[in-house]
Amino acid sequence: MLNSNELIKLIKEYNPNCDEDLIIRAYEYGKNYHSGQFRVSGEKYFNHPIEVAKILINQKMDDATIATAILHDTVEDTELSINEVKKNFGDSIALLVDGVTKLTNLQISSGKTKQAENFRKFIVSMSKDLRILLVKLADRLHNMRTIKALSQGKQSRKAKETMEIFAPLAGRMGMQSIREELEDLCFSVLNPEARNSIIRRFLKLKKVNVDLVPKIVQDIQKELKAISVDAKVLGREKKPYSIWRKLEEKKESFTRLSDIFAFRIITNSEADAYSALGAVHQRWRAVPGRFKDYISQPKSNGYRSLHTTVLGRDGKRVEVQIRTIEMNEVAEAGVAAHWSFRDGVLFENPFAVDPLSWIRSLTYGFEGGENLSDFLEHVKLEMYNDKVFCFTPSGEVIKLPRGATPLDFAYSIHTRIGDHCVGTEVDGKRVPLYTRLRNGQSVKIITAKGQKPQISWENMVLTGRAKSAIRRSIRHELRAANIRLGKEIARNAFEKVNKKVTERALITAAKKIGEKTGDDVLAALGGAELTGIELIELIYPEMFKGKNLPEYRVDSISFIGLPMGAKGKTAQCCKPVPGERIVGISRKGKGVLIHAIDCDQLRDFEEKNENWLELRWPENSGPEGYSSSLLVTLLNKAGVLGKICSLIGEQKANITDIKFFKERADYYIIYIELDVRNIEHLMNILAAITADEDVAEASRFRGDKQLTSTPKPYPES
Q1: Which of 18, 26, 379, 510: disulfide with 70, CB 3.0–4.6 Å?
Q2: DSSP 8-state symbol, 476
Q3: DSSP class of residue 238?
Q4: How high is the mean pLDDT of the chain?
Q5: Is the dihedral of CA 460, 461, 467, 472 positive or negative?
Q6: Residues 657, 674: Cα–Cα separation, whole Å
Q7: 323, containing H or E segment
Q8: 381: buried, middle or exposed (CB in 10 Å: 19+, 13-18, 0-12)?
Q9: Are 433 and 425 in contact (CB under 8 A)?
């Protein structure tokens, strides 16, 4: 372990004017408070923060960042308080140390955080000073370097977390060297067999191509000298994970990879960079489609360079990167280049990305739903642009659909929390329960034992879990009241036909309507799902001389155009939904039955004009879910049905039934019953399904009639 003088010596190599007193005080404080602490490996714990500091010294970071690295675990793991840090080291370092501590406590290893949106939260959390993230990355890098001391299970968990979170974060910040090392360290834990295989194949390739790298370096230097371009030429071998990733992405053989050997030309000016490119292309044949100009079109993290692949010595495909000294510093350090020193002073690199500007651009990308593939470069991590991620007071991340409210948040934690919710605080401020949540917000749910879900809550929530829980709770609370009301309705109905209500009579009615108990019937009466006359007709059908019950027993809706006080019921034959043109058929004794204007059953009423009513859907069309049916023809292969169900779920529709209507060897037809909000919602679902390459046709099903939505030609197998 380095002592304080040795540490200062390393810093002075790039910053001769460093604050020696600050580094020494941080060193002594860290050494004192970590005294007696040991890592799992058995080494003294204080060695860890010193190694973290060394990593940041290699990035040529400022004194405050180095001091933070030395102290970064003291507040979390020792008796040192943040107030004492502030008193002895000032507000700036205290802010950095506190930020690293809070970032550590975010529980980012939780399975619920494995969504890309969480990166935005981390960035927002550190928006006051991005150096907090730099220290955290260095901390994670050293932990990965020493991971072999942990148990196999902990190694695997740490490696997965690093591969999914910290490595892509380092890449997004432009810290390529750190990203590559993190990836390769994870690779050695998660897939050691593959890594060893790559190393063995690479060693064989090196035996065949002895001295290939220095020879190509000499070849490039010769061409640059011929055009009087002064530049440094470097050759290197890619890390095993980088090679493995290329093999997976390009599906090419090991020997055909163009960037197993990579070469870098570092020039003094941008003009020299383009001159060097011309010399390389003039000397060797360029591989088509392998040239990229990141100087004129820089990456969002500030990366600038010219990339080309040529057929070098002996026809070997090699990648060449060409950039200036300043561009190279940004390529190596990324955002950290903003704090880099040169000749003892903070160097203003013209290509370094301003941290605040970088944060704004990144968060804008998340909030705007833009393509985030650059952020997740080389990482197989699922993205949810339609999701928001909020935090509990303890730091746990809760994933919700965009547009969700605190009530959704409460029910996602536990049904009991949602049922007893009386209020909420978002980022410390009291807000209404219908407030739409945004990414990165901290949500506190206030509960009371006596609280119960309100009917109005159903219109405040977005998630199916919350809606279901609210409906279930309300039904439970209303059931007792409905039963009491149902008893009175039943008594009056039976008295009108000179009968007496009995349990046997109620059970008879229950069996006919698919219920189990007499209380179920009474609850249906009290809830207006069944009328007193319908109940009598169920039990004593002979009194009604064979008259049928209403065709479709659902909650009635007050359609615009109905007579005062009248209700309408939608017909089962066509299942109209809001947004469709509708017509009402008035039938004596049975109320008004609502049909879609193109329903085949309307032919029976063409000559009975007096029964037709021109109707419109009310602005509030009643229940949120309207039953509709689809017929979908699918390729008969694994995973297709699950994919279609997922597409429907993404459209926020609930599937109520699925049946295999017809089946053949190469395809099958399924019948899907689902609840939709309106005709637009239904057509959007059809469009999403029809657009899938494994769907031959998707259509709405209406009894014997199908309204087809632009079916695709049946795909060939």
Answers
A1: 26
A2: H
A3: -
A4: 77
A5: negative
A6: 7
A7: strand 317-324
A8: middle
A9: no
Rounded average pLDDT over 560-581: 78
What letter would DSSP give residue 383?
-
Give me 308's structure tokens: 């080309």
Structural domains in the chain? 4-193 (1.10.3210.10), 209-346 (3.30.460.10), 387-462 (3.10.20.30), 470-544 (no CATH), 550-622 (no CATH), 626-708 (3.30.70.260)
| Tokens of residue 548, six digits | 């049928």
Q: Which amino acid is at 532?
A: G
Of residues 77, 270, 293, 367, which has the active-site annotation? 77
Task: State the Cα–Cα distance between residues 275 and 323, nearest whole angstrom.
Answer: 11
* Radius of gyration (C-alpha) of the chain in whole angstroms: 35
In which residue are the tokens 């197989």 written?
380
Using alpha carbons, list the distances in angstroms from residue 282 to 164, 306, 326.
41, 15, 26
User: Distance between CA atoms of 202 and 546, rounded to whole angstroms?
Assistant: 87
Within 8 A by CB and 6+ apart from 50, the residues are 1, 2, 7, 70
What digits encode the pLDDT tens for the residues 88-137?
999 889 888 888 876 665 555 444 334 444 455 555 555 667 788 889 88
| Greatest Cα pair distance in the chain | 116
The span from the CA of 364 to the CA of 306, in Å, is: 28
| 76 in active site | yes
Say if residues 525 and 479 touch (Cβ distance below 8 Å).
no
Is 77 labeled as catalytic in the residue annotation?
yes
Q: Side-chain half-sphere of 8: how many Cα atoms within 13 Å? A: 15
Query: What confidence tier does 606 reach under pLDDT thresholds 50, 70, 90?
Result: low
Q: What is the DSSP letter of 435?
A: P
Q: What is the DSSP letter of 284?
A: S
